[in-house]
Amino acid sequence: MKLKLLIAALSASLILPVQTTAAADLATAPEAKTAESSKPLATVNGVALPQVFANLVRQARAGRGGTPESLSDEIIRDAVVTAELLAQEATRKGLDKGPTLIAALEFQKKEILSQALIEDFVRSHPISEEVLKAEYDNAHTKAGDTEYRPRHILVNSEKEAKELIAKLTAGKKAKFEDLARKESKDPSAGNGGDLGWLPPVNLVPEFASAMVKLKKGEVSKEPVQTKFGWHVIRLEETRKLDFPAYDKLKSRIANQLQQQQLRKYVMELRAGAKIE
Q1: Is the overall model pTM greater than 0.70, yes or no?
Q2: CB atoms inside a 10 Å sphere around CB 255
Q3: Which of 57, 127, 172, 204 is the most exposed place for a label (fewest CB within 10 A)?
């Protein structure tokens, strides 16, 4: 059963990645005209390699979790020189003329430009503290003050669900956990149908509505239908919800709202474009 966890949703994967790269800086920031920055990092067969190459390699390696040793000036310079040597040899052999390579380089350029635009957009459209706090308060309100620990058995038909309820409420009651392991098609079957602790907002509405009406240890008297199938639910217990503090969720909320802005921006660009 796919549960839309509220807190997880605030940190969910995004349609467009917001990465801390220098793409936007490279596109918009003026270069510092210092003697050090204008001096080539190295010269290979007469080709001067600018200092910015070292910055790009260092940022890429740091982003991949490079060790301090791999980020040293000497090693970074050596990597840039090696890349230039290999590129020169590839060009000498005519490999730069291959249509696939030309297309790959062109597409890579577009990806870098896209990332620069995304970073520029995020920087120019900051999320205010007031909006962040309002979003947090709204999420907190939706979550409520109680979390529940339900078990459930998910089957394909109402008939199957009613048969399970009959077994669970008969004179010689079957164990809910055993039936869940045997009959449920949900991944929670291996845990006897246990879904763990969660607030109602994390569940599909039909499931949540039926769950909150149950008393501790009670099994739903009727099958509950959702888009996933038919459920038999038992409420194990409840407890007070310990909702995360604002400071712990602030960055996740900001990230989510930024993505909403980006999606809208991209859709506006698509709407104004001629795409055939």
Answers
A1: no
A2: 17
A3: 172
Whether 227 contacts 235, CB under 8 Å: no
The DSSP call for residue 185 is -
Q: How many whole angstroms separate alpha carbon 204 and alpha carbon 57? A: 46
- List, for residues 108-140, the tens digit of each pLDDT value: 999 999 999 999 999 999 999 999 999 999 999
SS3 148: strand
pLDDT at 9: 41
Name the pairing type of β-strands 146-155 and 229-240.
antiparallel
Phi-psi category of 196—alpha, beta or left, where left has phi over 0 and alpha has psi -120 to 50?
left
When the candidates are 3.10.50.40, 3.20.80.10, 3.30.300.30, 3.30.70.260, the CATH number that belongs to 147-240 is: 3.10.50.40
Are 153 and 232 contacting, i.e. CB atoms less than 8 angstroms apart?
Answer: yes
